[in-house]
Fold these 2 entries.
Entry 1:
Amino acid sequence: MTDRTSSAAVPKVSIVDLYKSFGPLEVLKGISVNVNTTEVVSLLGPSGSGKSTLLRCVNQLETATRGQIYIDGRLQGQVERHGKLHRLKAAEIAKQRLGGGMVFQQFNLFPNLTALENVVMPQRIVLRRSKSGARDRARTALERVGVDARADHYPAQLSGGQQQRVAIARALAMDPSLMLFDEPTSALDPELVGEVLSVIGELASTGMTMLVVTHEIAFARDISDRVIFIDDGIVVEQGAPAQVIDNPQHDRTRAFLKRHSGEPSPICTTSPTS
Amino acid sequence: MVATDTIDTARVAGLPEARRYHLGRWAISIVVLVLIASFIRVLATNPNLDWGVVGEYLFNPTVLDGVKNTIVITVLAQLIGIVGGLLLALARLSANPVLRVGASGYIWLFRGIPVLVQLIFWFNLGLVFPSLTLGIPGTGITLVDIPTNSAITPFVAVLLGLGLNEMAYMAEIIRGGLLGVPPGQREAAASLGMTPLQTLRKVTLPQATKLIVPPTSNQLIIMLKISALASVVTYQDLLTSVQLIYSVNLRTLELLTVASIWYVALTTLCTIGQSALERRLGKSSAVAHHQPGLLARLFTGRA
């Protein structure tokens, strides 16, 4: 697989035959997935199927055992020199991560900073934005996710839903061209899930390229251009949401969906796709 | 099982609450107060302890010199401990196995040897290495060559002895603080494009500080008092100063009382500083913890 830099058809994300083991435990067993620019792709699958690990590999929080990931045609985490692949240094990996924002299950806001400071600090440190520039950008981002009124509160003073929306604003303020969501509503009380999903749904409709790991089947059907079902470290099936969710071809997909059926969509997004 | 309708719930709800008398609490308080009072009486009325002499020497220039030297050595040795301890803690958490083993070895060695032995060792370094030489290995070029005894003054011996020993303890405190920050914090920082160094400076250390400050204040207070060991290597700290005076006038008890008053006063200052710092660091916690007041903290026995 060579570095494909030709313009038009370059996928935003290209995952090529990815393997990942934790000690003797093989979590990813050869996954190949492309995500095109502005495409919204949901990763579904049972717990422990490897979907979160796949997402963490895309953002280089995990290092794949084998296989490559390209973003905008650029090889991630490695560089080819004299016919060999060399691992990049931590600072170079940090630079590569800039294109992609990530939202975690546990929010991971910085508890010693207010909501506003959480969004301002990374812009100042990483992008070296001016104080006023970073604050303006942070205000816009917090407004977009609807928590601007609580900008001066510390994370411990915010509900889970508000914390997750601040985390989304923090990622957005870095102006990423790709957003990764790792079970963004799994740690939330049921009544707070809707407010976070509607923010993510709104983001999907604005043409942001997104890779979403979720257990909210109805939500995935609403926002996704494509759904990928992963089980036991491999892609079992993929396709349009209507095809995979409403008419699954594989027994494993059917069994999974049966267990998760009967849950109504917590929100009614104005879906760009269906 | 008792059904609610067999109880006259309205009557029970209307009953007043009885007063509690806390008899045990009163009894213990009286015993403690009597003990404190007799202790103060024994001290105040003992004919062998002349309080006039205590007052006379409390602000004696030699004593004040000792106070100043004790403060200098405490602050500098603790600074060496904190900075060196941070480097040791980072080495212990590093991916490089040589650094990890080296730092563990340092901590093992320095925690294993009594600090008094270390002090005497540094003071007598000249017996092992008569001169200190700094050169470029393999070239024969010598940059510095001085006799050890002129380099290791009592001040340097105390600073090395207390500072290097403190590094080992601070390393463990700081490592504990760094490990107390959830790994999700580092991941969030990484996902925002921060380098490991930026993450340490802006995310991990500020949060670890909250965990590091209380045990470090404790270490500072311990340092204040073990600095009295400096008297064995003739450095003129607070204890040495009063020893110099009572070796002449033989007012041993009075001068030790003078030293004790100063040690308690300095410890009090440290405690006040600690509470102020902890209040500042605690402002991001939404739930206001019930913190005992200053007086309560002073008298509930921190080291």
Entry 2:
Amino acid sequence: MAKPTTIRIPEDLLNEIDQFVQESNLDRSAYLREVLRKGFSLDKEDRLLLKYVRKELGQMEVCQELKWDPWQFLAHLKARNLYLNVELEDWLDAAELPS
Amino acid sequence: MSQMVVDSSTLILLAKCGLLQTVCDLFDVVVPKAVNIEVASEDLVKNYPDAALISDLTSKGAIKVQSIVSSERLKPPLSLHKGEEDALLLAVKLGRLLLATDDGKAIKAARFFKVPFIITPKIVVELFRLQKISFKKARESLEKLAKIGRYSPEIIADALVSLMEEKDGKTNNHKDTGRLIE
């Protein structure tokens, strides 16, 4: 069930939203809920991936938080033009394979 | 056969660059149960051919799955996901065995516990150095690690240089003995 909450929005942004909602013949509350849901999802992904890049989170921790399976992880990095959080120093320090 | 503990990130990359079977043929690959579930659960096997390959190698015994007893837990300086923590613990438990991981945070923890680690581009170059794969296969694998594996261009460039140096070294050695490679 939806719960009410109060936020302060800059007047110019609110005017822009109201105008868009009117022109598009949308329900204002439903539209704001949808925008909040989409925005939250994207922002959460961005912030968790930033933590991954900084090595504050591991690959599997990100997958768990975002409910991604590990086989999708690389595609998500690609979509954001990000790379694995392995550094040149790690490559240089990596051990050799036993012969 | 030498043992190596492998975590989810490396299992995925080895499968994607077509070297998982080769590594399993050459090494005793050990994974914790949590890692096996992370990459090759029933649902994943249905959706991803590479997950099915891991499941197949596991059922054939080419990948050995080991459980971790909860009393054996490590206290890493940073929180890790269960699979990564178990892989690290397994490597420590088995006598600071080589840990294959492509996760920066897991590498940090491996450094803390003085566990030797290896990343997939290094595995590729090493397999060529040990003459287990051809130069062509090694180069193709590194290219896949760049494109699909999202490895940073600087690491891939350095790995390609190492690969070329290995090739040149081999060619020179073989010239000395009157043999040719590839």
